[in-house]
Amino acid sequence: MKITQLLNTPVGILSRKNLIQNTGFQKQHNLSTPKSLLQKIAGVVLTPLDYLVLFSTFFLLFGAVFLVHEFQPYFEQIHLDRMNSAWGKSFIMVSLALLSFRLFYIMYIFILHKKYKPVPSVSDDELPKCTVIVPAYNEGKLVWKTLKSLAESDYPEDHLQLICIDDGSKDDTWEWMKKAKEELGDRVSIYQQPKNMGKRHALYRGFNLATGEVFITVDSDSIVKKNTLRNMVSPLVVNEKCGAVAGNVRVLNNKRAMIPKMLNVSFVFSFEFVRSAQSVLGSVLCTPGALSAYRKEAVMNCLPDWINQTFMGQPSDIGEDRAMTNMILKQGYEVRFQSNAYVLTDTPEKYNSLYKMFIRWERSNVRENIMMSKYAFKNFRKGPKAGTRLLLVDQWIKVITAYPFLLLMLCLIIMQPLLFVCSTLMGILIFSSIPALFFARRHSKSEAVWAYSYGIFHTFALFWITPYAIATASKKGWLTRG
């Protein structure tokens, strides 16, 4: 990738000096020169394992295309046999209906995405007092980097309150918070929970300590750009109907391991395509824990319900971000997305950490889909609501079809293994091309190919997560904390 291309990416928009300062990449990766830093970030260097995985990905995908061509008469005969049976006709009709809905939904999201524009940053005179809350648990040095990046924001100092809360960490997180306090002085206030009580309780303490008109929450393993904070509050300033804003999350460690490389492409599609479309409807379904902004009034209106939320009689200790978003939408507020407000966040590098994170997310989705269904089909706010309801329907289709798809997959593996492998890989090739082309157009062609590897990885290694999360939706626990 050329340096000029790099400078057009969200990471590259930072100056080289600020990039080194704000992300701490130079020390973290033992990079001695700016040139080597830029090469590292540009993704020029791939490991032998990266090459092997990418080669295997396209070998499998194009191999499936070849097999479909070679065994076309065989597959046609299977199709004819299905058409001659009642269950076969029913199966094809249901499959076509679901495929038609999926294609319609993607087109609808695409049309909304094309209408999306981020809110330009307001002037210093218009910026409200803002409180940034950083809950931390076992983050070590990363919390110091997070606080440093926040302090280096171009938000007026006299309008910015920084609060960091250690949620009973068992490592040296508190020492790094004290180091940040020594360096930043009165610009940051640090607190310790008496014991590990969970992220929701750490945020709750922060909300009650906050003095700003706008609350911004930032994860303690995340680095913000210099203009992120002012871009986050701008929609709340210009639109009184806006109650919350979702930031644009990118992967911080996507040059260190293969899983983050794949997640980086997935995150871009999830935020810059899907959430931008949801934003046009004023109905972003989840403001991410890594970076979110809230109107104080909207938070305080639902804070007692939020901190005391339960599911099946058990206190909710996960999904605090989706729950807060749900409660703000329920009040009639809009929830927007700011594509120009970037945060770089650490993501899992190992499979066991990744699937635990996804289980937590999926359990939260099941719970909050139920909660949202209680108000989404009522007159919960003024103006059109059909689009918001369609977003919820799409969420429910994913949940409802999880078990039938799992059963179908097992049956095909046993009865028609060749058909299963070929059809699945062909589907991955087609549908993974959407995020790949989107990422290539907006950011980097060389990194976009990871969308195909992620498609295979997600289909064959993570397929079980949604069914498992549905069956264990009432279970407590953060899972990835340690």
Automatic annotation (TrEMBL):
Q: Where are the transmembrane segments?
A: 49-71, 91-111, 405-431, 451-471
Pfam families referenced in this protein's UniProt entry, alphabetically: Glycos_transf_2 (PF00535)
Task: Report the locations given in the UniProt record.
Answer: Cell membrane
Give every Glycosyltransferase 2-like domain span: 131-300
| Organism per entry | Reichenbachiella carrageenanivorans
UniProt superkingdom = Bacteria
* Protein name, per record: N-acetylglucosaminyltransferase
Q: Which UniProt keywords apply?
A: Cell membrane, Glycosyltransferase, Membrane, Transferase, Transmembrane, Transmembrane helix
InterPro entries noted in UniProt: Glyco_trans_2-like, Nucleotide-diphossugar_trans
What family name appears in the similarity comment? Belongs to the NodC/HAS family.
